Structures are given as C-alpha cells and as structure tokens.
C-alpha cells in the first residue's frame, strides 16, 4: 500500500476518542451585566468566535434565577428540575460549550446554603457574571449519543486529524 493511501486509510478509519491532546490554550474573558442570560450569551459568544473546543475556566457573579436539572435525572426521567427565583452567588460554573453546551453550576443563597446541578438555562445575571473561557487550540469538541447513558456525550478529536 502506498504511503498516501495508508495515511488516507488511517484517517478515514479513525474512531473519535474520549481524549486528545496535548493542546495549546487560548483564553477569552467577558463580563455580562444585569438581566443578561448566561447560557444564551455563552452560546452566542462561542458561535461568534467560531470556537471548536471551548470550556468555562472560571466564573464569579450572581443570578436572580436559574433552572437546573438535578443529579438523579436519567435519560428516561429528565424531569427532576428545579426553578430558583432568588438572588444567589455563583460559587462555581464549569463545563464544555460546544454545540450542546454541558454546564454545571453551584449557587449559594442569602444564607450561604448551596445547590448545584446541570444548567438548563434561565441564568439571569443579578449584578455581574465575570467569565473566563478557554479553548483547546488543537482539539475539537462534539457530542454523540451514548447508548450506555442515554445522553449525547462528549467526543474529543484532534483538529489536525479532521478531514
């Protein structure tokens, strides 16, 4: 088999991997103001910048409301959802921001009691949201349905191997 045919064969038969790298890192920072919805703003930012492997590095700020799916949800029972309608501090916001963003958040109420879960949306900024976004420069994030979990799960691939 000729070398070029061998390379073509390898590239066309590559299976997506749950890992790839190492990769250089690009960093972006943005601040959202009162009334802005965090998830939709992040999705729009990623689309505008054409990011291929974006993720949240850190976020501080506060929200007036949030809609979260709790940890006991399954593919068949995704209705374990809570709607918060109170001012909360963002203690943590982490996750990937590819075409189907997968974010988890931890919020603290006025008494310091925390609650966390999978972000479904409705994260309305109270005072500020200061967000730092990273992107792996040499990798790409996509999602593919995983029959084992019933959810679209992360697929990581190397950009240099994409055709």
CATH class: Alpha Beta
Q: Work out the helicity level.
A: 10-25%
Strand content: over 45%
Order of helices and strands, N to C? HEHEEEEEEE
- The Rg value, from CA coordinates, equals 18 Å
Cα distance spanning the termini: 21 Å
List the domain count as a whole number: 1
CATH-wise, what's the superfamily? Answer: Hypothetical protein, similar to alpha- acetolactate decarboxylase, domain 2
CATH architecture: 2-Layer Sandwich
* Largest beta-sheet details: 6 strands, antiparallel
Average pLDDT figure: 86
CATH fold-level label: 60s Ribosomal Protein L30, Chain: A
**What's the total count of β strands?**
8
Domain PPC: 22-157
InterPro entries: PPC_dom
Organism: Erpetoichthys calabaricus (Rope fish)
Protein name: Bifunctional protein GlmU-like
Record the SSE blueprint.
Layout: H1 3-12, E1 25-32, H2 38-49, E2 54-69, E3 81-84, E4 88-96, E5 102-108, E6 114-136, E7 139-146, E8 151-158
Antiparallel strand pairs: 1-6, 2-3, 2-4, 2-6, 4-5, 5-6, 7-8
Could you explain the architecture of this structure?
A hairpin with a 5-residue loop joins strand 4 (88-96) and strand 5 (102-108). The chain has two helices and eight strands. It has a single domain (3-161), classed as 60s Ribosomal Protein L30, Chain: A. Strands 1, 2, 3, 4, 5 and 6 form a six-stranded antiparallel sheet that branches. The protein has a two-stranded antiparallel ribbon with strand order 7-8. It has 163 residues and is mainly beta.
């Amino acid at each position: 088999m000729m070398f070029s045919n061998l390379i073509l064969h390898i590239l066309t038969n590559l299976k997506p991997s749950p890992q790839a790298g190492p990769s250089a890192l690009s960093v972006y920072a943005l601040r959202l103001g009162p009334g802005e919805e965090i998830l939709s703003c992040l999705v729009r930012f990623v689309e505008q910048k054409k990011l291929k492997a974006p993720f949240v590095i850190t976020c501080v700020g506060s929200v007036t409301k949030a809609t979260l799916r709790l940890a006991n949800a399954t593919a068949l029972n995704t209705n374990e959802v809570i709607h918060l309608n109170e001012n909360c501090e963002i203690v943590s916001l982490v996750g990937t921001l590819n075409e189907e963003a997968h974010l988890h958040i931890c919020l603290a109420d006025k008494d310091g009691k925390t609650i966390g879960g999978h972000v479904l949306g409705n994260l309305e900024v109270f005072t500020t949201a200061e967000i730092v976004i990273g992107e792996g420069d040499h990798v790409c994030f996509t999602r593919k349905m995983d029959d084992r979990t019933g959810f679209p799960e992360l697929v990581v691939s190397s950009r240099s191997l994409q055709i």
